Each structure stands twice: as structure tokens, then as C-alpha cells.
Amino acid sequence: MSNSIALGTATSQPGTIQYGRWEALSHPTGHTEFLPVIIAQGREDGPCIWLTAGIHGAEQAGPIVIYRLITQELVDQLKGTIVAIPALNPAGLRTMERKPYHVDDDPNRQWPDGRPDKPPDPDKDPPSSLELAYKRLFQEIAASADYLIDYHNSSTGSISFSIRDRVLYRGDQDGERNRADAEDLATKLDEMLRAYGHTTVNEFSVDKYIDQKLHRSTSAAALLLARIPAFTVELGTGHMPDRSIVAAAAAGTRNVLRWAGMLRGEPENIEGIKVVEPGFPVRRFRAPRVNEPCVALHLVEAGDVVGIGDPVAELRDVWGRLLENGLLRSEYDGVVLGRAHGIYYYPGNALFSLAIRDDAALVAPYPEDYYKD
Ligand SMILES: [Zn+2]
User: I need a labelling partner for 12 at 20 to 30 A (CA). Which of 171, 217, 281, 332 fits?
Assistant: First the structure.
């Protein structure tokens, strides 16, 4: 008999898929916004994994992965529980915009950050209704989830890849014990990413990660505050989801369920997509940047491996004539995750999203001033 899990109006029933609504916020027009909830529970006891998608409205592959994955056939073999929310940002999904029209911030930077609540500052806007909703939802994740995957899309034509966040720990109190626990968590996260089986890319350096508020993403809050293995996946093109990537993401997720002891059997092969293993750890990075206005003709594609000095684009003027320093070369060894959209570039614009060599630690203390400001 499995543990009973309830979220909003949905309550798990062993051997079935239950559907419900979790009330998120009220609009001033009298309408309310609920998040759709799916709870799929096997007849046998086991862990609980949360699958979330649709927090960026133009990224529409993740909801399909959830719809394709959760079937009665899966539930018949499942041990434990899947809690899925296929639309974390319903307003953004309606308008195909990253942000919901009622909040002027990236919704995937609105989750709790672990710092103590500050007294209200009358000169600053209070937390948005969406931030307050995610704060409540985070409590639900922390109460029931053993694992979490959050589904996203990167740029048009990009390859499917997973993002590994660095596991941060408090070094200012109980530093040694916290470091040991963080290393255990990072090892579990690594195993979970390997089970998923797509290209794995490490997140930015710690300072940039916090500066960009990436520590407040859905998966970062689960990893850093709930201290459970959790990661974000990027599923290629968002506005026109790719069927092969969707199928490979569903297969990767089933492999995670097998790794977690929630499904029997051998892992499935990840087929129909490029999985790149450059032979060294990589992190995401946008490069190379152009230093004059130009039209770029890209010479490499998403999934290509590039080395230092390899030509990656021809830079031309608007008549199509090659510029004097018109052959742009890579300054890094790495993998092309995707091309920047379009062909017209201003000075300083980067042409590619790359994954380049990463020598930084995957476990690190929070910056010293993190809990002070
Ligand atoms: Zn996204």
C-alpha cells in the first residue's frame, strides 16, 4: 500500500491516475488561476518523483513529455508515485511568452532562496502573487518529493541537454558535515543525470549562478533547499516541439524511474537524438562574440564538437562580402548546444550556445555574504 499523497483537489489512489487543481492565485478580475495536477500512483510502495513543466510559456515540449509518459500502462508497473504539474505558468503558455503577463519577472527565478524573510520595505514592491504561490508550492514539493525533473526548452534547433547545478552548502555553520552531505547529494544527482542519459552540461559558475538568480529556479530550489536530486532539462525547440526529443525525454524519464527503483527492467536506449560526450566535463557558455556589426553564416550545427581554432562562422557585410577578419574561429574546445537566433549581429553578440570545458568544483559553499545581505 503506497503512501497517500494529496495536492489541491487530487489525492493519490493506488493503481490509478488522478487529476485535480491546485489553486495558485487570484486575479483582480475575479478569476482564479489553478495549476493542473496529475498524481499517478502504483499499487506498490516506492519513492515520489515530481515532474514539472510549462514555467516558460514558449517552451512547450515539457507538457507533451508528461502527457506521453503518464499512461495507465506505466502506472500498472509503477512502484511509488509521480506528481506532475504540466503547466506551472498557465498565463505564459496561453500567450507563448516567457513571463506571465501579470508578473514582470522571469517565473523560473521566483522560487524560495533559503534566506530569512526580510521585513517589508515600503520602497520596494512586495513579492508577486506568483512568487507567493511558488513559495506555497515549494512546501508541497519539500513535503513529498524524493526527486524532481523540470522540463524546459532552449533555443530553436538546439540539442536536448540536461543542466547539472552545483550543490551549494552552508560553510558558515557545521561546514564539514554540510560539505559531506552536499557531496552525497551531488553523487546522487550525477547518478540520476546518467540514468536520464542525454547530454549533460554543468551550470554557470557559482557567482554568476546567484547573480542570475538561477539558484531560484524550480529544480535549484528542490536541490538546494529540499536537498533532493533535481535537474532541469532543455528539450530543443520550444515553440515547435520535436517528436524525437519528446520521445527521448520520456524514455530518459522512465530510465530515471528504473534507477530510482520505481520501474523494473533494463534501461531503454536513448534513440533519435544527438547525445554528445566530449570526454571532459562541460559548462554552458555563450561564445564566440563578434566585435563588429555583421551578418553571420554559421558553419557548425547544434551537436557538433568544436576545437580551439576551428572556423565556426563566416562574417559578411549586408551585401554578402566577406569582412576582412571574416572567418570566426572557436576559442574553446567544446560542444555546440545551439545557434543564436537569426543572422544579424551587433558587436558583443554571441553566435552560439556552447558547452566548454569546466574545471570548477561541483560542490561549493555559498558565497560568504550570501546569508548576510
Ligand atoms: Zn525555460
Answer: 217
